[in-house]
Amino acid sequence: MVGLPRVVAVVCAGLLLASCGVLDGVGEEGDAETDRQSSTLADAIGYPPQSDATGFARAALGTTLGKSAGFSVLRAEDLAHEDLEDPRARLVWRIHRDAFEGGWHRTPAFDACYQVDFNYYGAVAEPDRVTCPADATPITPPPLPRRDIPPDHIPALEATLGALPVTPGEAEVRTALATGLPAPQVDPETDLARIPPQVLVHVDGSDVGVALLADNHGTKDCVLGRRVGGEVLVWSLNWRDLGPLEKPCSPEAALAQRRR
Predict the structure, then answer these.
(1) Does residue 2 belong to any structural domain of this protein?
(2) pTM of the full predicted structure?
(3) Cβ(21)–Cβ(101) under 8 Å?
(4) 7 lies in a domain?
(5) 105 with 171, same domain?
(6) Would you call 86 helix, strand, or coil by DSSP?
(7) Cα separation of 232 and 81, whole Å?
(8) Reduced to 3 states, what is the DSSP secondary structure of residue 133?
(9) How far apart are CA 8 and CA 62, in angstroms?
(10) First-to-last CA distance in the chain?
(11) Which of 91, 102, 97 is nearest to 141 (CA)?
């Protein structure tokens, strides 16, 4: 015959399973999914390099995860460094997970916080789970003006090169570009005016080379144009050209590449 204490224990265990389900992840600050999300995020914002911790925070908040309601950056700290491999920035972010119930399983709500250091080349190591800072206020970095090259600059550059005199001087070309290229527009996302691209010019007799160069907070944009023998051609370089292939963005390159 089973003793009373054992009967009570069995009944209570059965009632707990039937009414509450199996408790998963009690007391854990994160799980395999938040580990994966944090690792992916650290890789995503490691390149292009950022100039400071605020830049990394801004990059994190610009991702799909960063724009979700449960994500926030709690700390963005600049670190003293001497060379490119030294950690230069540290972020602490939080991923909130709501409680979930399904079938026999119930997962309580939790906040998972991660700390990761970055050097010039990206994340120094995988994000570490850390205790969430008490009473931390989410960081909202101030917006920055965009520095990319809008698509309307390509036809404008083509039209400007086509309207130049036969043998223009560099000053004439610069004046024509200042008039012919579109004025910076206000970005509706930041309510800030775009920063116009850098304009580089090279004149060789009747041949003219132009490069429009923009560094959009680590991501470079380049548009090249040339007029050679009266023929005008304008094209852009993508991130592969400017990064892995290391093609130059210069007016001399615009003339040299199309003379071949």
Answers:
(1) no
(2) 0.63
(3) yes
(4) no
(5) no
(6) coil
(7) 47
(8) coil
(9) 55
(10) 98
(11) 91
